[in-house]
Amino acid sequence: MQTHSKPCVSSLATLSGLQEWADLPDGLLHTILPLLGSVCDLLAFSATCRSWRVAFLSYPSKSTLCTLVPPLLIQTNIRVDAPHVPSNDIHCKLCTCKVIDPSNQNITLRCQIDEEKFCFSGASYGHLIFSSNKSCVVFDVFTGFTASSPQLPFSVGAEFIYGALTAPLASAISCLIIEDGSTNLFWHVGSHSWVAHSLYHGPIKQVVVFKGQVFGMDSDRRLFKVHLAPQIRIQELPVLESKMISRQHLSDAWLVACGDMLLLVGFHRYVVTPARTFEVFRLDVSTEPALWLKVEKLENWAIFISKDKRSQALSCMNPEKWGGRSNCIYCYDCKSKRWITLGLGKPPQGQNVFVFMDCESILQPMWVVPSMFSLHR
């Protein structure tokens, strides 16, 4: 990721000389990190000097840290000029796209995207996942790092494929999970083969990591826990059936890890009016079977929904810290080509607002968090 502005943290280190600031203890630096209000500030902190970068990398919970700042919006439909970026892949054709930081829209950000990596299949942990009928390619849009999977055990329908990572590529526990319409395939990044797993009612079509565990959801909103070690095992979680989360009630739905809550966020489908509102449900595991309970308020949380259904939904705590709003859903407005804020349970205001979700092979605007904020070292 490139920026034309110098955030405050790096300039702060020059006030009394870099050497003095470099000697600050990790414990003190760790208390500073949660106070920073944007991805750019966190990147600047990490780039200040070697000892600060080490402190950033050793922060005990980056998955919590990344919920304290808003994600970045990659506007794949808006390209910007940039100096040539060298690539180790002679077949790689990079295009430069505009990136918006909601906490400071005056800073110009850019990212590089390889537009010749087959069909788009998903986005997670700052990575884009592409597929063909023979293999998958995972591309980190902020570092340019690319990983190619082994050849798939059988041809898949790339147009309908969904893919998600369980951790960034650089993590030792990273696993790529895809579905081809009938089967889930698992690739432990770095291994030489895929593992196939089929479910009676059909494959998992959405994956989210919550409290260190992998959860999945199928097309009928059944919920599963995915065990990756010592071998692949998918366990269905008993959840009381509810019409409130059925496809007839919610036209689109996403699993979202939100602090200590696992949420289901979806579009409420109206019959007599084209208006659409977001509704949120929280998984309550205090009973057996578990229940999806409707959430009337998100309290001090905000949810970020990408235009493409295959991009993972994200959450942010205390958005007022960077000028955002709690109890809201941030999503992309197709007409104005910008992000908008919708209050929970409230329809869009104004006739010019058009929120539309799709599942195309071409890249759509999406919210992402750079992979470095999810690494545990």
From TrEMBL:
Chain segments annotated as coiled-coil in the UniProt record: none
Domain (F-box) ranges: 21-55
KIB1-4 beta-propeller domain: residues covered: 117-356
Gene3D superfamilies, sorted: 1.20.1280.50
Signal peptide range in chain numbering: none
PANTHER family: F-BOX DOMAIN-CONTAINING PROTEIN, OS06G0113600 PROTEIN
The protein's name: F-box domain-containing protein
Organism: Triticum aestivum
